[in-house]
Specification:
With about 650 residues, the protein is α/β, with parallel strands linked by helices. It has 24 helices and 13 strands.
């Protein structure tokens, strides 16, 4: 069959089949959040009921045109971010963090104050926003955007700067909804095309797109060119198109679940912004923010980054060897797909997105920069502002759990704390400076030692700006604008820190699943067993998605970090959360009269099934398979055996 026939076959679907495919894709896309990922009726209703409305909100608002959004998604200048509600408009101002920032801020304030209908204007340099309060006859968004742009250009030439996205920005949610809708439609069309046995492209043609999506280092190169949000939309569209042409509904279904998870995260963050914005707006002025500090050392890499560094070298090497040995370009492309670490990405994204959604919905957290939650697995030190410890300090059970998890707690020596200073592993001696400067010095010293530092503070902008993970505690004063995550209760901050061990487990399991799926794919590639090339990748990605979601839900349900309540002893509290994390890696079936019968995990099932197939086809002998199974059981049992953490030395 000619190449033109292969390419045009899916386009010439009968009308009835295409319509049913689109309906199936739309149904899956709108219900996946509820039935498979979030377990909440409100999540599915939100996506189903307002998805299209949200996707077109930026266009209907008049500030962003379809051409602007398309240009941004293709690597052009990003569209201007904005949010409108409560008689206020938060609109992006560009160039505030440049040497010309003060002049730009002054010019924008003067220009916007002259617009009819504007009653008040505030400039927030930390978030690169101007907050405009409007009356009954408010200026159009296009007029306000043009005024801000003109004021910027009067000071400096326009540059292609990447915006700081806020949870309420319509453009961000529109991109997530578009990615979900494209993938869901692709799934429906792929299922319909496979049902009527239409021609399909070989799966190896998807190697480049799959590698760009799942190889972190390659994805970062694309993000550097397009920006994170545009990269997400472009890769989702390209992958949906190529997987539809290759008729791969299984991997498309996994992608739909991942996109639904990310969309649900963005929707919850948007709702948190709507809920918190009225309290933030009166304190929006931030005329003298601290400069963005330079980290003394590069941020340490985590287990996923180590695995990505290995796979980015191993994948092309494996493709070259496979192609040279067989002389088949298709085999080389299949080898690239087999080596893609899909499980690492799905495990981390599923964990972070589920955790972010739960914290926003159940604990009133506002994720100003949700990407920070993707760094939790690397946190090994936390610096705590003494202002949030007086008069009520953190529970001993929480700090003891953090200590046992390998997280070092650091505080400032303060006479006001008295005996409470002994609860920390390390006390920083402040010089004759403000607490904020002292906290910043502590953060930079720890980072220079190679630590990944989280900071919990209420009024320490310099320390929060320097932190790797910045958790700001809201009170009745000015909000900590340089925080990545805003909470209104210290107990939520402790809960975020208590999620660090689970984040590490999610990353470790993602690496294990990715390694196992790649090894299984390599075995299948070297044998005569017929397979398309994406089955191990799909299984690993699905396993990572499930493990990440389950670990996040277990962490959200654990009572350890409930601040202000009576807790069990520290040892019991640590054991409780540790057992919950371990239970998230187990599967059991509840049978009446029998109880809970353990069943294999997806990784174990894939391994045992592959070995059974190899034995049945007489590719390996059964004694060899028994040895492999025994070794696998020994390694996984040892891997899950809890290790003893030595008691910390006295501070």
């Amino acid at each position: 069959m000619s190449l033109s026939a292969l390419l045009t076959g899916p386009v010439l679907l009968p009308a009835r089949v295409a319509r049913r495919g689109l309906q199936a894709g739309a149904w899956l896309g709108t219900t996946a959040v509820d039935t498979t990922v979030t377990g909440a009726v409100t999540g599915a209703a939100a996506v189903a009921g307002v998805g299209m409305n949200l996707a077109t909100a930026p266009l209907r608002g008049g500030a962003v045109s379809a051409r602007d959004m398309a240009r941004e998604f293709l690597g052009g200048a990003p569209s201007r971010r904005y949010w409108r509600g409560n008689d206020r408009i938060w609109m992006e101002v560009r160039g505030l963090d440049t040497p010309d920032g003060p002049q730009i801020g002054t010019a924008v304030l003067a220009a916007v104050r002259g617009l009819p209908g504007v009653t008040a204007v505030q400039l927030n340099r930390a978030l690169s926003r101007i907050v405009v309060t409007v009356g009954d006859e408010a200026p159009a968004l296009t007029q306000l955007s043009g005024t801000v742009s003109g004021a910027e250009n009067s000071v400096r030439a326009a540059e292609g700067e990447r915006p700081l996205d806020l949870p309420g920005d319509d453009v961000v949610l529109a991109g997530r909804v578009a990615a979900l809708a494209t993938t869901a439609v692709g799934l429906g069309v792929s299922v319909a095309a496979a049902a009527v046995r239409l021609p399909q492209l070989p799966v190896a043609v998807a190697a480049a797109v799959i590698s760009a999506d799942y190889q972190p280092r390659i994805r970062r190169l694309v993000e550097h060119r397009l920006g994170p949000e545009s990269t997400d939309v472009v890769l989702a569209t390209a992958e949906a198109a190529i997987l539809t042409l290759t008729q791969n509904p299984a991997l498309l279904a996994v992608n739909v679940l991942l996109r639904a998870t990310l969309t649900a995260e963005t929707w919850s963050a948007r709702q948190a912004w709507h809920r918190t914005e009225p309290a933030l707006a009166p304190h929006a002025v931030d005329d003298h923010p601290p400069e963005h500090p330079h980290r003394p050392r590069s941020r340490p890499v985590g287990p996923l980054e180590h695995h990505a560094n290995r796979s980015v070298v191993a994948a092309p090497a494996a493709a070259a060897v496979a192609g040279a040995a067989t002389g088949d370009v298709g085999v080389a492309g299949t080898a690239l797909i087999v080596a893609a670490p899909a499980a690492t990405r799905t495990a981390r994204e599923s964990f972070a997105a589920t955790l972010s959604r739960g914290l926003a919905d159940r604990h009133r957290m506002l994720p100003l920069r949700p990407q920070t939650l993707r760094r939790l697995d690397r946190v090994d030190t936390v610096v705590i502002d003494p202002q949030i410890l007086i008069p009520a300090g953190p529970d001993a059970a929480v700090l003891d759990y953090l200590r046992r998890a390998g997280i070092r707690t650091v505080g400032l020596r303060s006479p006001a704390m008295g005996d409470g200073q002994t609860i920390f592993d390390e006390l920083h001696e402040p010089a004759d400076t403000t607490p904020d400067t002292a906290l910043q010095e502590a953060v930079e010293q720890l980072q220079s030692r190679g630590a990944t530092v989280a900071v919990i503070a209420a009024h320490a902008p310099h320390a929060l700006a320097a932190a790797d993970v910045a958790i700001g505690v809201l009170d009745d004063q000015a909000p900590p604008w340089y925080a990545d995550l805003l909470v209104d209760d210290p107990s939520t901050a402790w809960r975020i820190l208590c999620a660090v061990p689970a984040a590490r487990t999610a990353s470790r399991r993602g690496v294990e699943l990715s390694t196992g799926s790649s090894l299984l794919g390599a075995v299948l590639l070297l044998t005569s067993i017929p397979f398309r090339g994406t089955e191990p990748l799909t299984g690993g990605a699905a396993g990572g998605l499930w493990i990440g979601h389950r670990l996040a839900r277990r962490t959200l349900d654990d009572p350890l970090a409930e601040h202000g309540r009576e807790h069990p002893r520290a040892d019991d509290a640590h054991r409780t959360l540790r057992d919950r994390v371990r239970q998230a890696e187990r599967f059991a079936l509840a049978l009446p009269g029998v109880g809970h019968v353990p069943i294999p995990t997806p990784e174990q099932t894939a391994c045992l099934t592959a070995l059974a197939v190899l034995v049945a086809l007489q590719i390996i002998d059964w004694p060899v398979a028994l040895v492999i199974v025994a070794g696998y059981i020994v390694t996984t049992t040892g891997r899950r055996r809890p290790t003893r953490t030595p008691a910390p030395s006295a501070a």
